Amino acid sequence: MVTQDFTAQTKELIDNLKGVCTSYGLGNDGNEFKIITQVFLYKFMNDKFGYEVKQLEPKLATAESWEKEIAQYSEKQYEMLLLRMNPDSAKLKREHYLSNLFNRQDKEEFAKFFDDTLRDIAIFNNEIFSVKTGTGAKITLFDELSNYITDSSQRDNFCKAIINQLVNFSFEKIFNQKFDFFSTIFEYLIKDYNKDGGGKYAEYYTPHAVSKIMASILVDKPVSNVTCYDPSAGSGTLLMNLAHAIGEDRCTIFSQDISQKSSSMLRLNLILNNLVHSIQNIIQGNTIKTPYHKAGDKLMAFDYIVSNPPFNLDFSDYRTDLDSKQNKERFFAGIPNIPKKDKNGMAIYQLFIQHIMFSLSAKGKAAIVVPTGFVSAQTGIPKKIREKLIESRMLRGVISMPSNIFATTGTNVSILFIDKANTKGDIVLMDASKLGTTVKDGKNQKTLLSHDEEQEIIKTFNKHEAKENFSVVVSYEQITERNYSFSAGQYFDVKIEYTEISAEDFKNKMDGFKKNLESLFSDSKVIEAEIKKQLGGLKYE
């Protein structure tokens, strides 16, 4: 009940912040996303700092106001307190506190004071919380938010309105909550900003059902000290589910995405989910053209890779750059050609699959969302990729998902599972397309899987079970015989019903068929006579 109350209160805070933006002309503005997420993050970091110093200093926890109590510390005492904090925690100076901003609202040029405070927090924590670009430049935590108000005379009032929303709520009592709570909050926080046009590559939000299925199948036993990677990370939904399945303290996250917006979302997601130690590995850049993560002069190899890559995208401006000697091994199956009519139809997902296969460690595992057409295409790059997966003995299985599992695309999708340790076979091919319930999601149809359906998929796959018209377990040899098809339906047995009957029953059935035929023939004669009669009565002029 407490969690439900805090969830409702947190959503109310988000709604109130959006209300302030609307009141000042920023509702549905392109900059509203930056204001909402950055203000939310500042509040979260302020409360998290208060929570953590109270754990270190019991007298702060019992004080009527921890801010007033901590104000009595000498500079040396305060510096020592910061040194004792978790290295992954945001460090705040006393002038950074929300209470300080609240108490100084009568200050002249308050908007500038507000922006300067957030900028100083970003600088003070730059080494831990900055996202890097592919060229090494750092993208800091906070922008000068008041500048998004075009009417400069309204900036002070706007910042005061924001501060007055933040002081009425505290995160402190929910820092012991786990992944499910914060994933719900994160989804609500970005729900209006994760659609259309925000970035060149990733779908910002992969449905929970898909993310959970991928993580639960990839991580079917305890592991530790492993690396996790997403080359088209978006908001990080897949990575968060994977890290949660492994244990946030037992893995390190790596990612790359061309969109600054999605990289900012991912940074926020990492902070909410106790994965701050991985922020330094979040890269904004073009994975296909200039992959960032390397060990020496070679690309890094990862233990776990998840990806929901873009299916179609125009990359003609750098296609020729990819067709080089150094990329021959990475793009072993080839580079999609430029379509004559629609450049946006370029199947860039084929490059992501090849990049992922190339980036797996010796016993690495991967789960990739692909268009279902990929699993049985009989020509071109898709078939070459499937041949490589079989010949290299690194296929774990495929799940064909229900249509409209993604509300934003009508493309049917499947999940391709790769496991370089699965050399023996026992490959699971599953047709889950008939599961789920269709609901309306805005203007679109969306298919939702129930908890029981999710569990049926996960358990059947992990137990290597064969179920009639649902799943089959096949060998590498069988797939080779079927021309490298990964479609479960092509391996299902054709069932012909067979019932034993006596000679007398057989005679009776045949007599019945004969009578039916005679009756139909007799009826046809009557109909024929009636038609002739009617035609005979017609007169032609």
Order of strands, main sheet, comes to 2-1-5-4-3-8-9-11-10-12-15
> What separation lies between the terminal Cα atoms?
88 Å
Radius of gyration computed on alpha carbons: 30 Å
CATH-defined fold name of the largest domain? Rossmann fold
CATH architecture of the largest domain: 3-Layer(aba) Sandwich
Tally of individual helices: 19
Q: Can you tell me the overall shape?
A: elongated
Q: Tally the beta strands.
A: 15
**CATH-wise, what's the superfamily of the largest domain?**
Vaccinia Virus protein VP39
CATH class of the largest domain: Alpha Beta
Outline the biggest β-sheet: 11 strands, mixed
Spans of at least 5 consecutive residues with low confidence: 196-204
Q: How would you summarize this macromolecular structure in one to three sentences?
A:
The protein is 42% helix and 14% strand.
Report on the structure:
- It is a single chain.
- The protein is of the alpha/beta class and 541 residues long.
- The chain has 3 domains: 2-177, Ferritin (Up-down Bundle); 202-489, 3-Layer(aba) Sandwich (Rossmann fold); 501-541.
- The chain has helices at residues 2-23, 32-56, 58-62, 66-70, 75-84, 98-103, 110-124, 126-129, 155-166, 179-190, 208-218, 237-246, 260-272, 319-322, 349-358, 380-391, 451-462, 476-481, 503-536, and strands at residues 131-133, 138-139, 226-230, 251-257, 282-284, 294-295, 298-299, 302-307, 360-371, 395-400, 413-419, 427-431, 437-441, 444-448, 471-474.
- The strands form 3 sheets. An 11-stranded mixed sheet has the order 2-1-5-4-3-8-9-11-10-12-15, with helices on both faces.
- A hairpin with a 2-residue loop joins strand 6 and strand 7.
- Residues 196-204 have low confidence and may be disordered.
